[in-house]
Write a structure and sequence with these properties.
Strand content: under 5%
Number of helices: 12
Number of domains: 2
Structural class: mainly alpha
Radius of gyration: 19 Å
CATH topology of the largest domain: Serine Threonine Protein Phosphatase 5, Tetratricopeptide repeat
Mean pLDDT: 93
Shape: elongated
Low-confidence stretches: none
């Protein structure tokens, strides 16, 4: 089993089993391989990013690797994607924003992976909301994301934007408008189930009753 296979298997595991596989994958990077230097560095940065989410690598160290890889010609968006997920898991909005910024526009679309591009936008939006960013920027990202879900969500098998919904429910008063935009664009029951859909509708209903 080569390093890539170990890494991919690790993504399907959790706990100590995943950490062991990731460490084995990193060790195997020193073995003779036909992979190019950039491919090896992409995998090394991806492994570090996932390990960061598991508390095994300092997020800042993983970020340095990701930034270094993304600055090179022919760079990959995978390390940034994995680091963004790790940052979200750790509640590190700064790490999330740096990570998604390292992913070249169109990287995942070119590989017929629109759902991963949408996930990057979701992670960006959540980090912006939780870090108190300028609301205009939040609106731009969420509007683009909602459009992607409305147009491609079902056909491209997007994952439900649960993190975004929770961030909007917990966000500032302005978040209600974006929550309403999402509710008008997708079937909440279909995407989230009755419990979350009812909570969203309750929040929107209270806002309408208050006249805001």
């Amino acid at each position: 089993m080569n390093s890539w296979e170990m890494f991919e298997r690790a993504l399907l595991r959790s706990g100590s089993e995943r950490i062991e596989l990731l460490n084995d994958a990193e060790t195997a990077l020193g073995w003779p391989t036909e992979a190019s230097d950039i491919e090896v560095d992409v995998l090394r940065a991806s492994i570090a990013s996932v390990l960061a989410g598991d508390g095994q690598v300092a997020p800042e160290s993983a970020r340095d690797l990701v930034v270094s890889v993304s600055s090179r010609q022919g760079s990959s968006g995978w390390p940034g994607f994995y680091l963004a997920e790790a940052g979200n898991q750790l509640g590190r909005n700064d790490i999330v924003l740096d990570a998604v910024s390292s992913v070249s526009p169109g990287f995942f679309e070119a590989r017929d992976l629109k759902w991963r591009s949408a996930r990057c936008d979701e992670l960006r939006a959540v980090a912006l909301i939780r870090s108190g960013a300028e609301w205009k920027t939040v609106v731009e990202v969420v509007t683009r994301l909602v459009s992607a879900f409305a147009n491609f969500g079902e056909s491209d098998d997007f994952a439900p934007p649960s993190d975004l919904v929770h961030a909007l429910l917990e966000g500032p008063p302005e978040a209600i408008e974006l929550l309403n935009q999402l509710a008008l664009s997708i079937d909440l029951d279909l995407w989230f189930g009755a419990e979350i859909a009812a909570r969203v509708e309750e929040v929107l209903g209270r806002r309408m009753e208050s006249g805001d």
